[in-house]
Every structure is written in structure tokens, then in C-alpha cells.
Amino acid sequence: MITPVILAGGSGTRLWPVSRKSYPKQFTQLVGKESLFQQTVARVSGAGFAPPTVLTAADFRFVVAEQLSNAGVNDAQIVIEPEARNTAPAILAAALMHEQTPDAILLVCPSDHLMEDHKAFFAAVTAGRSAAKAGALVTFGVKPTHAETGYGYLELKSSPKSYEPKPVSLRAFVEKPDAATAEAMVEGGKHLWNAGIFMFRVSAILEAFEVLAPRLVMPVRGAVSMGQRDLDFFRLDAASFARAEDISIDYAVMEGAADALTVVPFDGGWSDLGSWRAIHTNTAQDTDGNAISGGATAINCKGSLLRSDDPEMEIVGLGLDGIAAIATGDAVLIANLDEGERIREVVGTLKAKKKKQAEDFARCHRPWGYYETLSLGKRFQVKRIMVKPGAALSLQSHVHRAEHWVVVEGSARVTVDESVKLISENQSIYIPLGAVHRLENPGKVPLHLIEVQSGAYLGEDDIVRYEDIYARAEAA
């Protein structure tokens, strides 16, 4: 059996405004009907695979659990990283959690990549398994289709006669090249794109860390040994994990072990979907080369990407050529498709301007559902709240605000101090300032309500929690 290790803690910004720190691209439906995370889970499920180990950030733990459940995977091990320390500490933590089964084979996969040909990927994994069982560190290299400057490369010791999935020897890792170097490497035939996917025996990767990155072993081992269960999650110890160096697996281990590394070529429609150009390439196009999705219309356009993720936001392109026009409910991006590597500058500029849109969406996801602000004034805020069937907010109170709740769909069980009431559609209830209260959805359909807040301070940190089924902090 192969145990998948899925890395799902990233907070990618290159696909802003659809991907943001609060809800990054791996959990978003970018290409296809499922999120990239769910597509990754599907690739490494079924015969030959053990339940996956998923590493993610605390903010995403309930999103991961929900998307796993929706994908029919209920036996995954979800590991919470206290903070982002890059891929090396995350992979080492996963290996240490399987230390009692030293011969187990781990398959490390990013959660935000696209693969069109699942059978080809499985064939590549099968081809590399024997090498991994024998103790080799195996990586997967993608046959390049063009001279891409946004990827790292794997230089092989000799040109593969074909791209059949069979292990070959690696000469070196190559950093992201300039355009001329990328063209030369692709023409030479000895270079593959570095997909960032690895497979190895537990004992082999632990030995590699001990030899090549021993400074990481003690803090990460401490994070695992002192980690604790948290509901259905395993939370790594924060103090120990913070002492681990922020470093990628390539720099920490793989480049030092390049001579002993085995590469399996893979040719199956892979993309890291790291730019709007990549989204354009991997989305169905009309006869003029336009990729259109959501509430979008193209008139006299060619080679462009038009996308609206908000059903109330209609976007129309007129006379565009090679342009990405992306609309969400609170932000619009208009950019040349060739400027994808500079999207981070957009996010940085918005952060400098202290714009919420830089990292957060108008819709904020919570383990019980979501809320979104409809209107915000100096002493009032109007929210739309959705509570999933059977879910409940924490028992809480506020120091600075009172609230009115109006149920517009479904039914709500509302606790206010000692009173518990069932509120149906078109009914409302008042929550006085300081009252201890809770909102629950006892029904079988989502509960939608409008919340009107009034008070001197309306921040989300004005919450004192007394009970919480999701084990969040007692006081925010």
C-alpha cells in the first residue's frame, strides 16, 4: 500500500482575486466541478492506496474535513501545522508520524496541481514504487510542452528515448530559468519540469533528513511527540515547530541527494495552475481562443480569459486580446495574460493600502457555515449568515454590540441567556448587548438569516466563547 501525503497548507496569491490567503486556490473550483484538493484526493484513492495524511493550516482544517467528506473520504489523518514552515518540515513531520512502519511508502503530493490523465499518473507511481521500496528517493518529472520560465527543471543524465513511466537517473535540479535558457533546455531533451511530487520509504527519507538536514530533525520530532489530538485533527506542537527552519524539501534534502535520486517521467497533462495563463490554457476555449466561465461574455475578443465567480456580477469583454478579466463579488482584476508572475505585486500593493481584498473574501468560511457582510457603517453592520444542517455557533457574548436576527430560510434554535426558542422563516429575535447566546440549525436544510449588528465596536474579536463544539479558543 502507498500512503499519500497531501500538502494543503499553501496560501497562493498568483491567482488573486479568486485565490486569497483566507481561502486559497486548492479549495476552489478553478478547472472542473471539484476543487483542486478534491481532485488530488481522487487521484490517490482506491486500490493500492492507504488513507491519506493531509497537512494543512489551522484556518483550513474544517475546510479540509468538509471537502474530504464531500469526496467520500472519511478516514484521512488531518495534521495541523501551527504555522507555515515550507515543505521540508511538513514532509518530515508526516514521515515521523509513520516512523513505526519504516517500510511504508509515502507519496507526497501538492494539493493544488491539475492532472488530466489519472491513469498515466497511476502508471508513473506504479513504475516508481519498486525503486522506492528498494530505498531510492523518487521524484516525478513532467515532459515539457513549452519553454516555461515559471517552473523548476530536472536535468537527466541522458535523454530519455521515450517518456514511458520508468525510473531514470537525475543529474541535477535546475532553478526557474530565463526564457533563453528554458528554450535551450527543452530543445536539448534532457530536462523535465519539476512537479514537486516525491515517493520514498519512510526509513529512507528519515535517513536522508538525518544526513542532509539534521537541524530540522529535533524541532520537528518535538512537534510530533508533543502534538495533541484536537477533535478529529492532530495538532503539531507550536513551540517546537516554530524552531524548524523555513525551507523547501528541494533545498533541504533533494538537491543534496541528487546523485542518488530516481526520476520517473510523466506525460499526462500536468499543470501547477500557477497563473491565469495556465488557467486559460486548461479551460475549454471558443473558436477565438477565449476561455469564458460564470457570468462572462466576450464580444470581438481573442485569446482572452473572462471569468465571473459572482452570479450577480456580469462581466463583458469588448475587443480584448490576450487579457485576463476576473471578477469576484468584491474585486476585479484586468491583466495581460503574460503578466502572471507579477500578480503577487498586486497583492502586495493592496496590503500596503490596507485593503481587505488583499487576503480576505467578503464571504468568511466557518466550520458551521459562512457569513458575509452586506453593509457596514460607523455603528452598524448587516450580515448574511448560513448555518449548515445540524451545525451550531459557539455559546458566546459580546461586549460592544447587540444583534437582531431575522430568519429568511430554514429554522433556527436560539439560546438567549436562560431562554431557548425555535425561530422560523420571517420571524426575528433580539440579542441584547452582553447576553449569552447561541445559534443552531436543528433542521435538515441550510439556515439563512440576516443579522443586524449595532454598537460602538463591530470587530470579529468582540466574542467571548463559553462553549464551542469546534474547540476554538475560549476567548478570541
Can you characterise this structure?
The protein is an alpha/beta fold. The chain has 3 domains: 2-271, Spore Coat Polysaccharide Biosynthesis Protein SpsA, Chain A, CATH 3.90.550.10; 285-352, no CATH class; 363-467, Jelly Rolls (Sandwich), CATH 2.60.120.10. The protein is 22% helix and 33% strand. The chain is built from 11 helices and 30 strands. The strands form 7 sheets. Strands 20-21-22-29-24-27 form a 6-stranded antiparallel beta sheet, with no helix packed on it. A 5-stranded mixed β-barrel has the order 6-9-7-8-12. β18 and β19 (332-336) form a beta hairpin. α6 (202-212) crosses α7. The radius of gyration is 24 Å and the shape is globular. It starts with a strand and ends in a 9-residue tail after the last strand.
List keywords for this structure.
about 475 residues, alpha/beta, Jelly Rolls, 3 domains
Return the domain count: 3
How can the largest sheet be summarized? 6 strands, antiparallel
- Count the helices. How many? 11
- The low-pLDDT segments are none
Distance between the termini: 42 Å
Number of strands: 30
Strand order of the largest sheet: 20-21-22-29-24-27
**CATH homologous group name of the largest domain:** Spore Coat Polysaccharide Biosynthesis Protein SpsA, Chain A
CATH architecture of the largest domain: Alpha-Beta Complex
Estimated radius of gyration: 24 Å
